[in-house]
Target: FAD-binding oxidoreductase
Amino acid sequence: MTNFATHLASRLGAEVITPRGAIPARYHHDWTGLDPVEPLALARPRSTEEVAAILSACHAAGIAVVPQGGLTGISGGAHPAADGIVISLERLNQIDAIDTDAGTLTAGAGVVLETAQQAARDAGLLLGIDIGARGSCQLGGVLATNAGGNTVIRYGMARDHVLGLEVVLADGTIVEGMNTMLKNNAGLDLKQLFIGSEGTLGIITRCVLRLHPLPPAKATAFVGCADTDKVIALLRASRAALGPMLSSFEVMWPSFFDFMSQATGLGSPLADPHGAYVIIEATGFDATATRETLEQLFETAFEKGLVEDGVLARSVKEEQALWAVRESPAEYERVLGPVIPFDVGIPIRLMDHAVTTIGAAIKAAYPTARALCYGHIGDSNLHVVVNVPEAGRAQPTHEVKDLVYGLVRDMGGTVSAEHGIGTIKRAYLAHSRSAVEIGLMRGFKGLLDPKGILNPGKSFDGVGAE
Model:
């Protein structure tokens, strides 16, 4: 194995290949919390051709390869293998072009999402993908996990923004699929195979992303509702009143909002407690019309009893304050300690049942536990974060996962809404996908990666083969 790292270094140089023993600790893990692992070698290629050369050598030698982006994943998809190498895409960080006529951005997989967002804004356009890790996640990882985020209700998941991809297959073959046209039905849409595949079928090196007109106006409201039924009725009313102006609809139940607003010291914009809290964001092309439409929605919703109280931001500072608690999950370690996080999808009609049932089941099993619930309800996404105080760092992860994922399965939901499967959800993939579907996934893997070197043991790889 050591000889292989030396062989790679002789071919590509010490600037590209770092052997075990000299690999910085940041490449030993992602955000998942799994025990750090130092890989056999770290590769930091500077071009697609270097990625291809590395994969060709690994394919010939049967050496496992784990691709890494910004290392912000929480499912273990970028966690290293001790007997394999890591390929970091961070040097493929060039924005090649922005076409304002076609509304496209062409960039390398290592471009940080926030950098791409700012480049689009500088050109008077909008990249509609937005997630909390925008300042460190990279485009390749965003696409490989089909990331979601706060604006899915308006712009869709990551795959909805992709026009073209350049991908390197396991044997080093470069797939040039950098389509820039919105309409292109010449055969199968091969890029969809790689979006959301978590690096198990190929490594994304470049992409063409669709851009949108940049709405210059934004209006934000924070409201309190009596219960989840009122929240869902408010969602219907918001869609009807705002139409395409509705860019975010974020819900926080008291388990999350009341605890985090107090624990972080951020407080609440509202004087009294409520059964649920909602952030509604509207974007448009006329500031007065955008704000007045949101104000009218609020007034109508209040008259109909959908809303108990609420405030509208009057400045960017106030807007940031309304979002502050929703964007506070980075504080979990400080205010909660170790947590067991869930990113699940639930049919909207069952959202109240899900929040109530999951919370009650966790309390029944662990009376002192906290189960914080929040999410992007408009796209059926529910986040649940569990902490059992007396367990300390030895949280009952396996038992809580069995409990929560079993309930999600019984409700016809999905065990992964926007963070992928990685290593931590493999045992539960069959809760959401049939044996036929998993068999097809494994069939694609066998075709594109016959030696199984790409991110082995991640996502669907090996599921159902035992």
The mean pLDDT is 95.
